[in-house]
Amino acid sequence: MIQKKAPWHFLLLLILAGESVFILPFVLSRVFRPTVLEAFGLDNLQLGLCFSVYGIVALLSYPFGGFLADKFPPRKLIAVALWMTALGGLVYATFPSYTILKILYGYWGFTTIFLFWAPMIKATRVWGGSTSQGKAFGFLDGGRGLVGALFGTMGIIIFSLFITSEISELTVSESRAAFKQVIHVSSGIVALVGLLVWFFMKLDRKIEKEIILEKITISQIQEVLRLPSVWLLMIIILCAYVGYKITDVFSLYAQDVMLYDQVQSAQVGAFLLFVRPVIGILIGVLSDRSQTTFWLFVSFVVSFLGALLFALGLISDSATVLFFISILVVATGVYAARSLYFAVMERGQIPLILTGTAVGLISLIGYTPDIFTGPVMGYLLENSPGAEGHQHVFWMLALFSFIGGIAAWYYFQLYRKKKQY
């Protein structure tokens, strides 16, 4: 493991890039889900299928993108990914047909995963060095959450500025016109971040040489696949990522169950985004002072308990305080798990130089929720309208949190004694 850290501005650019690349395909639809459904003329199942197309392309991209990350400097791959993702925003702003929208999500699956994902994880691991993996990944995910929250807040402000009538009387054309401005501004910022990364996110030449392989061999892939930590992380990330995907539904829950309007429901989505940086930073600092693997297990327990609050139907439109407390509990568990699941790679004895390859192989299974979570959520919500459908979605979260907790506990027991690579 590299002892000398990259500078702080390297991590800050990584954080900025790490969330900016996902603003167009995911963050806007998370914050503005009711608006997106209306403006594009979609139902929940159709939007879920767009995410599935993204997930299928991403699934094919993970392993090959992982190999690429071990051969080229992270800076170049990340910058190109940002520019190509921003170009997709220009198409998104035209409110294309459902068919074109699915193709666009497939394109984003390539730009955000093949070119971006593994380089981001590897660069974060490099910054963390041998003593600050929890802090590195906690700051990464927490920082990404803050960037997402700021984008979400900016989007709500821009959206509100371009609305001329009362929210209750908002027409589809007015909604489209306002949301179009949100997309254009977001795309411009994503492209600008790409420029900053290209010129300023540079590693020391010696470090860069240490983390790049000229050639990836079959024996190196086999070496990675022989590690128990790799197989356990596949299960852990799969379960944690289902939880993360399910947080997309909170703004819709606010509208369907709590009876909020479009702007109020978007504000719920933005509130959730502001929780993420706090959790990421706190859990990152805390886990470096004890064991990241133990706190990963705890995060699944918290997520499971939060899921039960919603699944058991305890939250009605009159229980506003309980609604926000329950969001906070679920978010704490989900975001803590998300902050830590790559932070345990060092304790799991995965060699730094093969990080890209390991991430690609782990992600091949771990991020399959990109394919199935959207359609399953859409099916549950469309077939049981209102509160009942949302309860079914949270039973799904409870199940995956339980399975993830078992895998995380086994990982903790297996790697209690630290061995550095």
Description:
This protein is mainly α and 421 residues long. It has a single domain, classed as Up-down Bundle (Growth Hormone, Chain: A), CATH 1.20.1250. It is built from 18 helices and no strands. It has helices spanning 8-31, 33-39, 44-69, 74-92, 98-114, 117-128, 133-161, 172-200, 205-210, 218-225, 228-246, 250-256, 262-288, 292-311, 320-340, 355-366, 369-383, 387-414. The chain is globular and about 60 Å long. The mean pLDDT is 85.
Keywords:
single chain, Growth Hormone, Chain: A, 0% strand, 421 residues
Rg over alpha carbons: 20 Å
- Quickly give the structural class: mainly alpha
Our estimate of the beta-strand percent is: under 5%
CATH topology: Growth Hormone, Chain: A
Contiguous uncertain segments of 5+ residues: none
Find the CATH superfamily.
MFS general substrate transporter like domains
N-C termini distance: 5 Å
Spell out the helices and strands N to C. Answer: HHHHHHHHHHHHHHHHHH
**What's the helix count?**
18
The residue-averaged pLDDT reads 85
**Silhouette:** globular
CATH architectural name: Up-down Bundle
Please tally the β strands and state the result. Answer: 0
Q: How many separate domains make up the residues?
A: 1
